[in-house]
């Protein structure tokens, strides 16, 4: 029996397993909406909705060893829904004090770097995109946790990550 099975079983029987689950997978769940470049508030909403969905579906989870994958998929669906909804809105932040705004040239340079990075990232295959997003947003996750979340073999996470980063570097150099 793996640790997720024990924790889920403990939570179902009223023990303190929920805190263990949240602590174990919090950064993974948080990394998904942030990888969609959602605002902090929207990412927090997705994060909360994902945990709410887990609480609602907890008794239906048949394979606790795949919990990380279930959480990533649920957070991804929630993030896509937010992106679609936000695509119909125009956001204006009129309450930002002018003194804290960066200089226009700093904004232009930052925007250009981000645009090039995201352009290069989006040309990678889906597996590399997902792996690099999780690595960037949840670097503390073990290879086993990343492998579980992405449905990969643990032994291939490091080499795949290296190949993906090398490909991303090549694509970024080509964009300069």
From TrEMBL:
Residues 21-88 form the RNA polymerase sigma-70 region domain. InterPro entries: RNA_pol_sigma-70-like, RNA_pol_sigma-70_dom, RNA_pol_sigma70_r2, RNA_pol_sigma_r2, RNA_pol_sigma_r3/r4-like, WH-like_DNA-bd_sf. It comes from the Bacteria. Gene3D superfamilies: 1.10.1740.10, Winged helix-like DNA-binding domain superfamily/Winged helix DNA-binding domain (1.10.10.10). Keywords: DNA-binding, Sigma factor, Transcription, Transcription regulation. SUPFAM superfamilies: Sigma2 domain of RNA polymerase sigma factors (SSF88946), Sigma3 and sigma4 domains of RNA polymerase sigma factors (SSF88659). NCBIfam families: sigma70-ECF. Belongs to the sigma-70 factor family. ECF subfamily. This is Sigma-70 family RNA polymerase sigma factor. It comes from Lentzea indica.
């Amino acid at each position: 029996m793996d640790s997720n099975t024990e924790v889920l079983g403990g939570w179902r029987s009223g023990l303190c397993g929920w805190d263990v689950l949240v602590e174990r997978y919090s950064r993974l769940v948080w990394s998904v909406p942030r990888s969609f470049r959602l605002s902090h508030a929207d990412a927090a909403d997705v994060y909360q909705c994902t945990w709410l969905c887990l609480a609602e579906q907890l008794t239906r989870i048949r394979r606790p060893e795949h919990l990380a994958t279930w959480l990533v998929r649920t957070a991804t669906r929630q993030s896509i829904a937010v992106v679609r909804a936000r695509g119909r809105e125009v956001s204006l932040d009129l309450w930002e004090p002018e003194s804290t705004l960066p200089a226009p040239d700093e904004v232009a340079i930052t925007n250009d770097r981000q645009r090039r990075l995201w352009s290069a990232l989006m040309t990678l295959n889906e597996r590399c995109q997902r792996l690099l997003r999780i690595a960037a947003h949840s670097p503390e996750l073990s290879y086993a946790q990343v492998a579980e979340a992405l449905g990969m073999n643990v032994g291939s996470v490091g080499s795949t990550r290296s190949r993906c980063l090398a490909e991303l570097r090549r694509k970024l150099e080509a964009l300069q």
